[in-house]
Amino acid sequence: MKKTIFLLPVAALAACSGGEQQPQRPNIIVILADDLGFGDVSAYGSTTISTPNIDRLAHEGVCFNNGYATSSTSTPSRYALMTGMYPWKNSEAKILPGDAPLIISPQQYTLPKMMQENGYYTGAIGKWHLGMGTGNVNWNERVTPGANEIGFDYSCLIAATNDRVPTVYVENGNVVGLEADDPIEVSYKENFEGEPTALTNPEMLKLEWSHGHNNSIVNGIPRIGFMKGGKNARWVDEDMADYFVGKVRNFIDEHKGSPFFLYYGLHQPHVPRTPNARFVGSTTMGARGDAIVEADWCVGEVLKTLEEAGILENTLVIFTSDNGPVLNDGYKDMAEELAGDHDPKGGLRGGKYSLFDAGTHIPLFAYWKGTIKPTVSNALFCQMDLPASLGKLTGGKVPEGLDSQDLLSVLLGKSEKGRENLVVEAQGKMALRAGDWVMIPPYKGPKRNRTKNELGNLSEYGLFNLTQEPAQQTNLAASEPEMLEKMKTQFFDLTKGYYKADVEEVELK
Questions:
Q1: CA 51/CA 225 separation, integer angstroms
Q2: Closest CA to 439 of 467, 466, 403
C-alpha cells in the first residue's frame, strides 16, 4: 500500500483560506475515549449503564446519530483526526507498538499546528498511540519528534496503550520520574535477561491474560512488549485517571485567560481495565462497566473545571471515541460474563477491528453552552472533518487537498447536510458508507478474531441499508443490483490506487 504524506509548504499555507469573516474564537476541547461503543453511553438510550456527564454533552448539545471514526482501531482513527487525511493513504497508520516512531511528519498539516499558528495555546494529555521518536527510542533522553513537534505546546502522554510498554508518562518528550541510575530499556522482540514475564512467573499476576498479553509484568499486570528499569517512573494503573485529570485541570487553569485547544485522550475502557477503587462496583458489569463510569467522571471534572474557571460558555467541548467496542481484548476481566443485558454496540453489528458498522459508528457529541442548542442530528459526520470545520470556526488556515470537510454548520447543529460518503477502514480493509447504505467488498480471512468480534470478512459483496436495519443482518446485494453498482463505482473511485482485494490479516498481539 502506498504511503502518502500531505506536506504543507509555506507558500501553500499563505494561499490557504479558512473563512472570509473573522469568526468567534472559543476554547476547544476534544475528548477521545478508547474503545467506547455506540451503546456504552446512556445518551443513546442504554438503560444498563449511567453516564450523566457524557449525557449532558449530548442532551445540551448536538447528539450525532451518525458520528464516525475513519477506522475500527486506534492509531489510524487518531491519525485521521489529527491530520484530516484518510489513514489508509499512509501505510504506517496501523496499530503501533509502544516503541514505534512518530507516523505524522513534522512538516505535515495537523489540527493542533493550525490552532497553534492561529494564536491558540495547544495541549495533548492522555493516550497518544501515534508514535514517538524516529525508531530505536532511547527513553532516557528527550524523545523527539513527538506531539510537541506536530503542533502541541504542551504534552503529557502515554506512548501507546495502557497494555503496552513502556508503562511511563512522557511529558514534553521526557519520561516523568525517571532516575539516572535506573534507565529504561524497551524491546518488542525479546525479553531482557532475568526479567519476569507472564509465562515464566504467573504467580506475580493480579490480572490474568487470555491472549496476546504475556510479556513483561508491571503492577501485577502482564503487558505487550518487554521492559526493564524505570521502576520509580512506572505508572500506577488505578491512578491513571486521577493523574491525567489533574493535568487537564492544571492546563485549563493556567491558560483560561487566552484561547486554548486541548486534546484529551481517555484510556478507558481499553484494557487493562483498572478503575480506581472508588469506582469499583459502580456497575454490575465488572471492570469494563466501572471503567466507563470512571471515564464519565473524567468528563464531569472537565466541565466542573471550566465552570470554576468561568469559561464554560466560551468553550466548545467535543466528545467521541476512537473506534467501536470490544469485551474480551486480551485479559480475563469477566467483561463478557458480566455484560448481562448491556449491548456496547447499541444494536449495531461488529465492533472494534470490524468493517461492520459498530467498528466505526461511535458516540459523538458537540457541546457549547449558550451557543449550541440541544439538537439530535442524523447528518453523517466524521472525526476527520474536525480540522476543516474547526478551521472555519476559528479562522485557521486549512489547505486544499485534505479529506477533511468543512461541516461547521453540522457540528454546531445548524444543518443536517453532512457528508455524502465516507470510506471506513479496518486493519487495511475498506468499505463505503453513503447515505443510508453501506457496501462491503468481499475479503478473505476469518469471520471472527480472538476477541469474538465479527470482522466483516464476506465471501461476496455486502450491501446493507442502515436506516431500515442497523443490525446489518440482511444482505441486499442481490435484490438491489443498481444500488450495489452505484456504491462500487463510488468506492473504487475514492480508493483508486489504495484498494487491495486481499489484505493480510493482522495478528492481535
A1: 33
A2: 466
Q: Please say whether the structural domain 421-494 has been given the CATH code 3.30.1120.10.
A: yes
In whole angstroms, what is the distance from residue 4 CA to residue 190 CA?
Answer: 32
Identify the three-state secondary structure at position 480: coil
Q: How far apart are CA 148 and CA 113, in angstroms?
A: 10
> Is the omega angle on the peptide bond into residue 272 within 30 degrees of 0, that is, cis?
yes
With a CB cutoff of 8 Å and minimum separation 6, the contacts of 304 are none
Query: Which grid cell sits at 74?
Result: 486506534
Q: Where are the domains of the chain?
A: 23-184+229-411, 421-494
The mean per-residue pLDDT over the stretch 301-318 comes to 98
Whole-angstrom distance, CA of residue 472 vs CA of residue 323: 18
Nearest 10 degrees: Cα torsion 366, 372, 376, 378: -70
For residue 487 the three cell numbers come to: 456504491
Instruction: Give the model's pLDDT for residue 504.
Output: 65
What torsion, rounded to 10 degrees, do the Cα atoms 138, 139, 144, 149 define?
A: 160
What is the structure's pLDDT at 502? 79
Write down the architecture of domain 23-184+229-411 according to CATH: 3-Layer(aba) Sandwich (3.40)
Global pTM value: 0.94
Q: What is the pLDDT of residues 88-145, one digit of tens each?
A: 999 999 999 999 999 999 999 999 999 999 999 999 999 999 999 999 899 999 999 9
Going by DSSP bridges, is the β-strand pair 421-426/154-158 parallel, antiparallel, or unpaired?
unpaired
Q: Tell me whether the CATH fold assigned to 23-184+229-411 matches the one assigned to 421-494.
A: no
**How many C-alpha atoms does 410 have within 13 Å on its Cβ side?**
24
